[in-house]
Amino acid sequence: MLALVSPALLVILALIVLPVGWLAWQSIYHDGFTLENYRRVFTEDIYWRSFALTFEISLAVTVVALLLGYPVAYLANSVPKGWSILILSLVVLPFWTSVLVRAYAWLALLQRTGVINQFLRYLDVISEPLALVHNTFGTVVATVHILLPFMVLPLYATMQKIPGDLMQAGASLGASPSLTFVRVFLPLSLPGVLAGCTMVFVLCLGFYITPELLGGGRTVMVSMLVSRNVELYNQFGAASAVAVVLLLSVLLIFFAVSRFISLDRILGQK
Amino acid sequence: MTTKRNLGYGYAVLGAIALSGTAASAAEQITFVSQGGAYQQAQTVAILDPSAKKLGITINQDSIPDAWPAIKTQVGSGKPIWDVVDTPTGYCLRGGEQGLIEKLDFSKIPNAAAMPEAYRSPYSISYEFYSSVLAYSQKTFPKDAPNSWIDFWDVKKFPGRRALRNHPIATLEAALMADGVAPDKLYPLDVDRAFKKLEEIKPNITVWWTSGAQSAQLLNDGEVDMEMAWNGRVSAVAKEGAKVSFTYNQGILQSTSLCILKGAPNLETAVKFLNEAVDPVHQANLPLHIDYGPGNPKAFETNVIKPERATQLPSEPANAAKQALMSYAWWSSPAGEAAEKRWASFMQK
């Protein structure tokens, strides 16, 4: 058995365990053992602000993605097979476009001279262009667009497994469609909600290009702190410490969620 | 001899030399590293190919957007494979202090020895100039355009949306000039005063840009009405028909420099190349292919650059006189590094 899996284990060791281990080592060793990098991460204002902002944005993105994704998944689940394939393809299609291209596309839509502002001005709804981008708002919009498939797909997978008989049973017992939804369908779809939210939240924590291009320089997320520490200040130790703290936060989130549903489910295995 | 972009060929040659043991009789060569793109193509035609031909050497090329981490790794490992890098001057100086860059013997580089002292350091020779300038939309300002950093800071007289680079280098200089400091009296920078002045304009900055492409796009799309930008980026957008312009007045003249990695495999050839690369005629060729100014001001005396072209270039003497010359020595000093770190907390406040 061990002989069979050992090539895979070697790959994991070489590609994941060693680099992450090296990273963690960098954060505590620089001309001797030091906790200075962690002291800075936990005491300096800019790190706190970045972590707080990153969690806020991730939370906002998750909530918006859930509000948008749930009805889509519900629709895909309740229409005939052919239609549901079409809906899901439309959800997944943007997935194959580069993140960079999508960021610039949102810039073209949202900026001052962008399509949306010009249309609103044409309709005389506004006299001055709205500040839709180069701020947190623009960042959240574009990030939701990129992460939406990670919400819709687990939701759809969970909804697929809810037996249709249950809804009919609810109806035959006299419940209105909305009551059946609230009392039967919604609770049964909650594992999908949890799985989708975890995926979106965790992925959002590490976002880099989107806030960089659409945040106008003010939305400094944790990933940007990592890159600036390396590029600007050449401080690999500080960058590693930030990365390790972020990684631990992610593991903690996965651990907390795994108390409620199995990790296989979040990662889309079952 | 020609220059070759293929580094693999370079390795092959190195291997052959090692095997045959005829290093002395083999053709001389170096590996030259620049930032790639249109810029590296332009210098290949203007400087690298002619230098290789004249010296009878082979120049293998490599490109990397940011050479600094690679320099650290290569020299740190004790076996650098690059010889000469074209990189922002500050890295040559910082590298020199950290023992990563060779100290230059200017008696072997007469072309550089004849250049102004401010254009070289013990570790570097200015290779080409660009400028951080005040650029603006001609649609917003058809006449009476902003012409100084004082104007840029004056939001009443010049209403409009503004952008600055998300980086302290050149931005602190601009802030001090906006506060009335003369371009030739900037250094050592009064960092406190600069940040105080920046706080003043901060609420009016729509975007803090991070890449040159982004700055060009902001101006081109009319997302901002005025900004700090690199002269080459602005003129490129203007050439494509955008109604944008810029002024060299109070621009911050910046350069990339050539420097040699400590322990470079072809040190002697690299020094010969350095001298050739800043030859006035080769230098004068560069602005015929791209909007950057020559690092050697003698290039303007060669008649290769036509007068009307010269007036467009950042390092043309009359243009240079209007600008502040960036002090990379100050930026790579402890005070400069502290100012760089302070930037992050300024941005997030």
Automatic annotation (TrEMBL), chain A:
Alphabetical list of CDD domains matching this protein: TM_PBP2 (cd06261)
Name recorded for this polypeptide: ABC transporter permease
InterPro entries: MetI-like, MetI-like_sf
TM regions (residue ranges): 6-25, 46-70, 82-109, 130-157, 169-186, 193-216, 236-257
Keywords assigned by UniProt, alphabetized: Cell membrane, Membrane, Transmembrane, Transmembrane helix, Transport
Membrane topology: Multi-pass membrane protein
Signal peptide residues on this chain, from the entry's feature table: none
Family statement: Belongs to the binding-protein-dependent transport system permease family. CysTW subfamily.
Subcellular localization(s) per the UniProt record: Cell membrane
Classification lineage: Bacteria, Pseudomonadati, Pseudomonadota, Alphaproteobacteria, Hyphomicrobiales
Superkingdom, natural source: Bacteria
GO BP annotations listed: transmembrane transport
Alphabetical list of Pfam families matching this protein: BPD_transp_1
Keyword Transport: yes
Domain ABC transmembrane type-1 per the UniProt entry, residue ranges: 51-257
One Gene Ontology CC term in the entry: plasma membrane
